[in-house]
Amino acid sequence: MGHTLLCRLGFFLICTLCCGYAEEHESKATLTANITEIPAGSSAKLTCSVDKPAGLKYELFKRTSSTDQTKLEEQPDGRFRVSEGGIYTCRGYETERYTTTSLSNEVVIYATVSKPTVTLQPNWYQIFKGEKVTLRCEIHGGGGAQWTYEWRPTSRNSPTSSEYRITAATESYSGEYRCRARRDYQVTDWSNAFSMTVEDKPTPSLKAGDEIIPLGGSVTLTCSVFNSTGWKFDWFRQKSESSGAQLIRNNEPNGVISISEGGLYSCRGRRGDPAFYTKTSSKVIIYKTVSEPTVTLQPNWSHIFRGEKVTLRCEIHGGGGAQWTYEWRPTSRNSPTSSKYRITAATESDSGEYRCSARGDYQITAWSDAFSLTVRADKPTASLTADQEIIPLRGSVTLTCSVSSSTGWKFDWFRQKSESSGAQPIRNNKPDGVIRISEGGLYSCRGGRGDPVFYTENSNKVTIYKTVPIIPNVILQPNWPQIFRGEKVTLRCEIHGGGGAQWTYEWSSTNRNSPTSSEYRITAADSGEYRCRGRTDVFTITEWGVLRLAVSGEFFFIFPPCLNFLRDFNIFCIKVTYFPKDSSIGENKLIVNKT
């Protein structure tokens, strides 16, 4: 029973499918078009229909000679709009039953695309001999189709591509150019004519805003190619009349530059890839005004002395590295044409006011301000000073050498070791004029400056003594324990350890002028301090030796009178000594002595 039912159901399905497939073949789609040639920029209407359209939708197909048939779109009412040429067909289909009709008849549609346009790349108004350009045939609305192009005139073996390349234009390329294109079921009209004229290589025009650059200013140069576009410019400058032109700026876009240097200027235009160059323009002379020069003195000394070598220099500020020719005033001295006025050995006749001016390639200056030069007839004498005359024990002394109201000196130093020897150089070419010394001697100095060196007169001599670690002994002779006012005594200065030197002695006491010998003879008057020291001819000096001398005041009493004849009678003579109050004794005393 079950098997019988299944068999009946299977048979029913098979019959249903067979019957439906047979109906599909009996229904055939029909495709119609309102136009078969589509005007440029328009479209055609296609209609797909079936005898029994109930429940059907419609599909549109297209193919060309170079492409397979492809489905374009679906529409429920079978109405389609197309704007491209090709071979079209259609069919109906039912979604629920998965059935389709057979394909319709073929309808051939031709599309007319818009007229192409000939353009020039680069888009220059004028073309010159030797330039590389390309004519391009541009089709608007042609899509990405593979077109075959045709060019007029055809005598030039025109290409079949959209580009007509001219690698090096000549006059023979001048004329009118047209193009058209064709492909499957599409064709264009001939384009409008494009006129191209090839001219001789142009010469740019160079103009200057002014011929003279003002001080600190600039001038504008303008380079242009008449009635032509697309140029960039190279700029050239000839620095001097004898030099060649040098490229100073390259590939400038606007043809206008600002310059601040004098020279002989020119320009040329360039455009394209590879670059096509114009001829070089005419040359324009530009002069630069530079500031007036300054006369300076080298070396820059405040005073010049007879015999010195000096150089006056004409310095130009802002003149760059130009080759200048110089003029000096006064001209009666056969002034040079260089920037340096050399005076090898100055004399009083070289005193005066000096001026200079200069001119160079495309530059000029005014006359400088006057520089006053005074040559002194007297040769200067250096001055030597010491901060002290005696070098302290294990110390030093500072010496200063200078030349009054004058600069630029270096100094040579001399020392005389003893009074009997000559001066010897100890230091040479010292720049600051100050040295420190730790040896005694007779010192002098001199200044020198310039090349060759000009020397001053030697300075005054300064005696410097060096302190040695010796303290003299001051000895009293006779060596009495008491010295009384009015007594005559000798002070002796004894120096030990001097190495056999010949000493000169110096005494110092209260209100006394000391001798220069080793002995100081005095008549005792008041108590006081006596000092001595020794000097040698090799400029050494000892420390001070000191003696404190106490002088006693005195008077005599004879009681009874002490006469010689009385001594025979054993009569005592009494000597009374009175010491007054003073700093040495400290109190009044009366001393009685038996004689």
Describe the structure.
The protein is mainly beta and 595 residues long. The chain has 7 domains: 23-112, Immunoglobulin-like (Sandwich), CATH 2.60.40.10; 117-199, Immunoglobulin-like (Sandwich), CATH 2.60.40; 205-289, Immunoglobulins (Immunoglobulin-like, Sandwich); 294-376, Sandwich (Immunoglobulin-like); 383-467, Immunoglobulins (Immunoglobulin-like); 473-552, Immunoglobulins (Immunoglobulin-like); 564-594, no CATH class. It contains 2 helices and 56 strands. The strands form 14 sheets. Strands 2, 4, 5, 7, 8, 9, 13, 15, 16 and 17 form a 10-stranded mixed sheet that branches. Strands 20, 22, 23, 25, 26, 27, 31, 33, 34 and 35 form a 10-stranded mixed sheet that branches. A hairpin with a 4-residue loop joins strand 7 (86-94) and strand 8 (99-100). The radius of gyration is 64 Å and the shape is elongated.
- CATH first level of the largest domain: which class? Mainly Beta
Alpha-carbon distance between the termini? Answer: 199 Å
Tell me the strand percentage band.
Answer: over 45%
The CATH topology name of the largest domain reads Immunoglobulin-like
Kindly report the average pLDDT value: 85
Looking at the overall shape, the CATH architecture of the largest domain is Sandwich
Domain unit count: 7
